[in-house]
Specification:
This is RlpA-like protein double-psi beta-barrel domain-containing protein. Keywords: Signal. A 6-stranded mixed beta barrel has the order 1-5-2-4-3-6. The protein is globular. It has 2 helices and 6 strands, in the order H-E-E-E-E-E-H-E. A hairpin with a 2-residue loop joins strand 3 and strand 4. By secondary structure, it is α/β, with parallel strands linked by helices. It has a single domain, classed as RlpA-like domain (Barwin-like endoglucanases, Beta Barrel), CATH 2.40.40.10.
Length: about 130
């Protein structure tokens, strides 16, 4: 009986070890997913981070002022198996939290522009 009890404890401990995550990249991933909209045209003028004006086809993003992502950071978005990596070049005055404005070129890699906005998009620092 005592041997059975000890074997049960060891098996439980082994199961818990196997259930533990192999690596933790939680802090790099968005919590609850991103809200994504697209921007283009005159809104691409004079990016906050400086540099040349991007065009609609460039894979760029504007982040909220309270975002941990800053100028030059790369952020990857994954939406229903479609993905795109963008470079942060601007700030979005109307965005907050995990809301990102991305270029038309970047958005079109995730969904049709007519959709307008996406919710619960997985994202992480690339």
């Amino acid at each position: 009986m005592r041997t059975t009890f000890i074997a049960s404890i060891l098996a439980l401990g082994a199961g818990m070890t196997l259930a533990a995550p192999v690596s933790s990249n939680v802090e790099a991933r968005g919590d609850g997913g991103a809200h994504i909209t697209w921007y283009g045209g005159h809104m691409l003028d004079d990016p906050y981070c400086g540099g040349t004006r991007p065009n609609d086809a460039d894979l760029v993003a504007a982040t909220p002022w309270d975002s941990p992502y800053g100028c030059g950071d790369k952020v990857h978005f994954d939406y229903w198996g479609k993905g795109v990596t963008v470079t942060v070049i601007d700030k979005c005055d109307t965005c907050s939290g995990t809301w990102f404005d991305i270029s038309k070129g970047a958005f079109s890699r995730l969904a049709d522009l007519d959709v307008g906005e996406l919710h619960n998009v997985d994202f992480w620092r690339a």
